[in-house]
Sequence to fold (491 residues):
Amino acid sequence: MERFRKLGITEHVLESIQEQKFEKPSEIQEKAIPLVIEGKDVIAGAATGSGKTLVFASAIAKKVERGKGLQALILTPTRELAEQVSKAIQKFSKSKKLEIIAVYGGISINPQIGDLRTADVVVGTPGRMLDHISRGTIRLDRVKILVLDEADRMLDMGFKDDVEKIILECPEKRQTLLFSATIFGEISRMAKKYMIDPVEISAEVYVDPSKMKQVYYEVDDNEKFSLLVHLLKHETSKLAMVFCNTQRNTDFVANNLVSSGINAIGIHGGHSQEKRGRTMHKFSSEYVPVLVCTDVAARGLDIKGVSHVYNYDIPKDSNDYVHRIGRTARAGKEGKVINIVSRRDDENFNRINSHNWKFGIKKEEMPNIERIFIKFRSEGRGRGGFGGREGGFRGGGRGRSYGGGRGGGRSYGGGNRGYSGSGRSYEDRNGGRSYGSGGGGHGDNPNNFRQRKDDGDDNDRGSRSGGGYYNNRKGGRRSFSRGNSRPKGRY
Ligand code: AMP
Fold:
C-alpha cells in the first residue's frame, strides 16, 4: 500500500485499492498518477488491462466534489466500456458518494436526461453525448477533467468529428488526459491541438507474459470450424473468448457452435444494447462459458477468468491482436491464446508476426479432428439455411465458394438482402449493400461504418462471410512468408 500512497493517491481511494486487493501499482499507475494528481495533461500509451482506469479515477476522486455540477467527463468508444469505467470509478471514489452516470446510445434517452441534472461525473459514448449537447440536456462548462479513453479506437470508429465537437464544448481551462494503445498520426495531432504541454508516457498491458502461452495451428480453410470445436472440447478452459473479424462470422460461428453442442453465445454491435448486456452477464457469470465476439464488442472489457482466447479470424491490425490477447493472463492468472490460421489469414498473421516478433507464437501440430457438418443459416424469408461441409464444395481457383448446397445465385442491392442468396441477411440492416454468392455469400457493406457508430462495431467491409470460404486444398502445408500468392476475389 505504501507504494500507492507515495504516488499521492488520497486516503479514501487507498481504502478502495486495499479492498480490491491490488498489491502494487502497475507500470502506468506508477508513472502517470503523480502527474495527473499534479494537474498535468497526460498522453498515455496504455491499453485496457494496463490499470489505466485508476490513473484517471485518482484525479477525479481528488478533484471532483459532490453536487457542484458536471466536473469530469470521460469519453469511451463503446457502451460496454462506458458501463465498466463508470463502475470502476464508482468503486474508487466510493466514500465521496459522487454521482457517476454512464451515457450511451441504444437505450432510452429520458432517464439519462433526469440523471444528468445531478451528475458529478459522466462516462459517455460520443454519439449520445452529442445528442444531449444538441438538446441542451447536458452542460459541460464546469468540466475540470476531460478523459479521452481508447482514443485510437474512437478515431478508428469514425468518431473524430464528434469527439472534437465535444472537446470544444468543454472549458479551455481544464485538465485533459488521453489514453490510447497507439500514439501517432491523428492522435498526436489532436493532442497538440487540444492539450496543454502534455507529458507523454507509455506502459505495457497489465498481463503477465510469462503466464501467457501463444500458439497457432495451420489449417485448411474448411477445417477451421472443426478445429475450433475440437479445441473447445479438449482444452481445459474456464472462460473462452472466440474472436471473429466481422459480425457475420460471429453469428455464423456462434450459431454453429451451439448446433455442435457447445454452450456458446455471440456478441457484436449489431445487437441491441439490452441483448449485449444480457449476453455479457451470461458470460461473465460463467453461465455460458464461450463468448464469440468482434473486437469492438469485447474491446476494453475486463472479464475475470478468461483462460483462453481464440482467434478464429486473425485480426488485420496488430493492435487489435494485443487487445485481444490482453483479455487473458490478467493479474497473474494463466492464459492461452490460440490462433487458427488458414490461408485467408496469412496476410494478417504475417503482419502480426513481423510487427511483433516478441510475441513468440509457437506452432502446434494439427490434431486428429472430427469434421463437423455446419449450417449456413439465414433468418427471415427465403430459402436460406442450407447445410454443407465446412466451406462446401471445391470452389475452383478464383475464390468463389459454393458453400453448402442451394444458397443459389447472387443478390446485389440495398436493404436487407444477401448472405444466403435468396435468404435475408440478419446482418446488413443498415442499408448497406450485400453481395451474396453461393450459399455462404460474401459481405460487403460499405455504408455500415458511419451509420453504426454508436454501436461501435466492425463494418463488415470486404468481409468473409460465414460459409464463403474458398476451398483450395492444393496448396498443402504452407509457410507464412509465402506473400501474395492468393487467388483474387473476395472471400
Ligand atoms: P484497466 O486497465 O484499468 O481496465 O484495469 C484492468 C484490470 O486490472 C482491472 O480488473 C483492475 O481492477 C485491475 N487492476 C488495476 N490496477 C491493478 C493493480 N495495481 N494491481 C492489480 N490489479 C489491478
Residues 209-363 form a domain with the Rossmann fold fold (CATH 3.40.50.300).
